[in-house]
Design goal:
The chain has 195 residues and is α+β, with helices and mostly antiparallel strands. 42% of the residues lie in helices and 24% in strands.
Length: 195
């Protein structure tokens, strides 16, 4: 009998696999970036489907098979309903998949993403969720992801933004004050990573 692992995770991708199955790409707190086979997920009667929507956060119960992870349980914690926030999270999901090749565990990466999404989930309807201001959250997340993955050095000009991975209004205001310079730093790091 296989051991069951339960971990917090984020659904980055949900791809059709056969008539009723799906392959999920999850970034998990416990295992990093993994691909998971979800048997019968696309069936109308599937009890797991509502918990595995694209860009949602939840708790996932998994079994490690010989070659693939298999989904055996899921419970959704939250999903951001705001379309602008979902677009932001989709861009971050693409960056995570681009920068991380294979299963690479980093709970720091998971917490960067979860904290940002949770902040915007709770801030729904506030000025910080306007499309104009979401760029600050994206820059903050990108700085932290690049630092966590070793593509950004701990320099004085970014230290206050990477010191911890919480997200509060003050963090976003600090990014806004230096938006242009920080955007240059992010873009330079991405170019240098050759990813």
């Amino acid at each position: 009998m296989h051991a069951v692992y339960t971990t917090k995770g984020w659904v980055l991708r949900n791809q059709t696999s056969g008539e009723a199955n799906a392959t999920l790409t999850l970034y998990t707190e416990g295992f990093g970036l993994i691909r998971v086979h979800a048997q019968g997920l696309r069936r109308a009667a599937s009890k797991l489907a509502p918990h595995c929507t694209l860009l949602s956060f939840g708790n996932f119960s998994l079994v490690k098979g010989k070659e693939v992870w298999r989904l055996i349980g899921a419970e959704k914690n939250f999903v951001n309903a705001d379309s602008s926030v979902r677009q932001l999270l989709a861009r971050i999901a693409k960056l995570v998949e681009r920068l991380i090749q294979g299963e690479e565990k980093s709970s720091g990466i998971y917490h960067i993403i979860e904290n940002l999404a949770d902040f915007y989930h709770k801030a729904a309807g506030q000025d910080l969720v306007s499309p104009d201001r979401l760029i600050d959250g994206e820059i903050l997340a990108n700085l932290r992801l690049l630092y966590e993955l070793g593509y950004l050095a701990d320099k004085a000009e970014v230290r206050e933004h990477i010191a911890d991975y919480t997200v509060e209004r003050g963090h976003l205001e600090a990014v806004l004050a230096r938006r242009k310079d920080l955007l240059v730093t992010v873009n330079k790091s991405l170019r240098e990573s050759q990813m």
